[in-house]
Design a protein that fits this description.
heterodimer; A: 1% strand; B: alpha+beta; three-stranded mixed β-sheet; 19% strand
């Protein structure tokens, strides 16, 4: 799939924002480590709102006709994308009411605050689920059609949220193992979940060029894809990544997204490192941003079969035509069929 | 009623006439225009509702070239409609045609992700998704002579490889062809239950070459001379 920055930022930032909101509610519900002060709660909820808004604004950048975006809330009965929009919009009044109540009443422990905070957190968590289901419900993309996708969105969103929350605590206090432990546990859980996903998507798919053309008893090879240059289909779906490059990206995901934040948070919990603790959320966002890039670029739509490509493998082309496909990539060009903007 | 196409892979010659006729009709039709990008330049591209690909089936000497036109299958279980958040995509209950309301589409591409057949293409100029309409503005047009109330691709096909009809009516030309020729749907395992069907090539005995008489001496010399004297 085309790894467009708009959808990468949408899922990355809004997931982190909803995760942060859920973690703020949890910390205040159970008074973990003495709960957050009203001012800190207000700052963190404002930050969550900022992250969610960044995601939502960037998502409109991938619409080709944004003037009709308001219609995207209408088909919530069938469409996960519409449901995501509905819940994301529901999140705002609740989170803003919580923020206002906590800030002006200077109290995040009374009944109204707990009610508003938990309601906002719940709506945020439902939105993450809808976001995951946008991808998981597509039977056309094997790498996405798995319950691991919403599960990963949860794990990564909550881990990012808790990383931000514990960083804000470390900036104020020094010895604060409770929050750091929760953040580390969530990061480890997210890393394990992601590993399960990476193993899972290696499994072969049921759909092949044979079932796609109906010629299931013989070998089918592409002779000609019927167009001189790229099409919408090749632009949108033909992105891929070589296994070696994908492996290097995955190493970077684990180093930057999971290991480095845990190490920095644990260090900061024991030694004063000042503002350097901000590296923890920064690296986590970069690492999990890379993870989101891989999520898109590794996903192979079945329509690629008609262009002679099996998901996750080299093109099944006629040998005479294969030369160009097996040696793609003069520096940096990883696309087997270049997009029409690029070449 | 379940209107759709049946495509005969036995007779399709891969001339792309259906695709060009489709483009010609629909570029001034209800979802017009079908924008072209760089049409006369080095990198021509654009919106098409119908694309023809070419495949080689089997291995030499038991191989065959198959020309494979694909357009919207007007699926019974049209996930492109299910996932559309705006309600722009819809399936008409009366005849099963899947259409896109150009006034409602916001160009999010989500329906094209849900379509396994690559039937939907975004028009970057209008910012909306476009797709085969089964020439809905032809097939019901009573000002046209009755034999012309068919999709443009069907009328254009010189090999009569495209049939148009009601797949719900067991005696329609399409249903009979599917029944008699073993018509099949593409990617049945995804359960989109497409309306369009494909007719497989007829099986013919292969022409034996092993029992051909060996050539005479004069013929062999002629072949040798032909090989040696190249232009």
């Amino acid at each position: 799939m085309n790894p467009s920055l708009a959808v990468i930022f949408l899922t990355l930032f809004s997931g982190a924002g909803f995760g942060l909101m859920a973690m703020v509610a949890m910390v205040n519900d159970f008074a973990i480590d003495g709960a957050l002060s009203p001012l800190r709660t207000a700052i963190l909820v404002a930050l969550a709102l900022l992250l969610v808004t960044m995601g939502m604004v960037s998502s409109t950048a991938h619409l080709a006709n944004p003037k009709n975006a308001w219609r995207a809330f209408t088909r919530w009965r069938t469409s996960w994308l519409a449901r995501e929009g509905v819940f994301a919009v529901l999140f705002y009044p609740l989170a803003i009411a919580y923020l206002g109540w906590v800030f002006f009443m200077n109290n995040d422990r009374d009944g109204v605050a707990l009610l508003l905070g938990n309601a906002a957190a719940l709506i945020g968590l439902i939105t993450i689920f809808c976001q995951g289901m946008i991808y998981a419900c597509l039977r056309t993309i094997r790498q996405w059609h798995t319950p691991l996708v919403p599960a990963n969105f949860y794990a990564l969103g909550l881990a990012l949220g808790m990383t931000v929350l514990s960083t804000s605590r470390l900036l104020a206090h020094r010895h604060d193992l409770a929050m750091v432990s929760i953040a580390s546990a969530l990061l480890v859980a997210a890393a394990v979940m992601k590993a399960i996903y990476y193993f899972w998507i290696g499994a072969p798919s049921g759909t092949t060029l044979q079932t796609a053309t109906g010629f299931t008893r013989g070998r089918v090879r592409l002779l000609d894809q019927g167009h001189t240059f790229g099409t919408f289909l090749t632009h949108e779906f033909s992105n891929s990544i070589s296994p070696g490059r994908a492996l290097r990206f995955k190493v970077a995901v684990y180093l930057l997204g999971f290991l480095a934040p845990i190490a920095i948070l644990l260090t900061a919990a024991h030694v004063a490192i000042g503002l350097a603790v901000l590296l923890a959320p920064l690296l986590a966002f970069i690492g999990i941003g890379l993870e989101r890039y891989l999520f898109f670029v590794e996903a192979q739509h079945v329509v690629n079969l008609y262009h002679g490509r099996m998901p996750g493998s080299l093109p099944q082309m006629h040998p005479a035509l294969r030369a160009g496909a097996e040696n793609p990539a003069p520096a940096g060009k990883r696309r087997l069929v270049p997009s029409y903007e690029e070449r | 009623m379940r209107l759709g196409l049946v495509i005969d892979l036995d007779t399709c010659v891969g001339c792309h006439a259906c695709a060009t006729a489709c483009k010609e009709w629909n570029t001034s039709s209800i979802t017009a225009p079908l924008t072209d990008y760089d049409p006369y330049g080095k990198e021509p591209s654009g919106v098409w509702f119908n694309r023809i690909r070419h495949y080689e089936i089997g291995d030499y000497p038991n191989n065959k070239t198959i020309n494979f036109p694909m357009s919207c299958m007007h699926c019974e279980n049209a996930e492109c409609v299910t996932v559309c958040p705006t309600g722009a995509s819809y399936k008409r209950p009366e005849d099963g045609i899947v259409l896109i309301d150009q006034d409602k589409c916001m160009g999010c591409n989500y329906c094209s992700w849900a379509c396994p057949y690559g039937a939907r293409e975004l028009d970057r100029v209008s910012g909306t998704m476009k797709k085969c309409t089964l020439c809905v503005d032809r097939i019901y047009d009573e000002t046209l002579p009755e034999e012309e109330r068919q999709p443009a691709c069907v009328l254009a096909c010189p090999a009569h490889a495209r049939l148009f009809g009601d797949l719900d009516d067991p005696e329609s030309v399409t249903s009979r062809a599917v029944r008699e020729r073993g018509g099949y749907a593409l990617m049945p395992e995804l359960n989109y239950t497409p309306t369009n069907h494909y007719l497989p090539p007829r099986t013919r005995p292969s022409i034996p070459t092993s029992d051909l008489p060996r050539g005479s001496l004069a013929r062999k010399v002629k072949e040798w001379v032909n090989r040696v004297i190249e232009r």
